[in-house]
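Hi Y.,

Following your request, here is the sequence exactly as I used it, all 174 residues.
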Amino acid sequence: LHKLLTRLLTDHVLEIAHHHREGMGAENGADTVDGVVIFPAVGVESGVNSLFQGLQTFGLDVDKADHLLTFAEMLLEKNQVMNLTAITEPDQVARLHMLDCAALLQCCDFTGKRLLDVGTGAGFPGLPLAIARPDLSVMLLDSLGKRLKFLSAVVEELELKNMLRNEEDKLGAI
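Below is the corresponding structure, written out as tokens. Let me know if you'd prefer a different format.
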């Protein structure tokens, strides 16, 4: 579902991005398309800047950027020994993983909801959504225990309290 939503959003944005430059992101070199902001980025520093700008544009707490950056660092470190993602450039992780997931908060009302992220893989979109919205209860499900072990370490490091667990007090497994 995440891949499908990402693909649909990406196709839509790429189709019309060159027609729009407006809103709060435009003065910073960002394209705004139907409320979705596309930030150009090169390198780690602009990835961090993109993350802060994106969270601000989406009306989310920019203090959550620290948790998202910690997750990104842990992801890239673990990715060296375990295939979690093909996206390995820090600026791309910020934009294509973290902000893509945050964009879902603009599309759906998660107020009072619980989220089940089936086939979470590296934790997308469930973990960034749990970070951005501490009021959202999230359960991550995956068929590989080693991925869930990594995600448990991230949840513990970030001290996330909104993660639903199974009866064995684990994040979840299929």
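The radius of gyration is 16 Å.

Thanks again,
Q.
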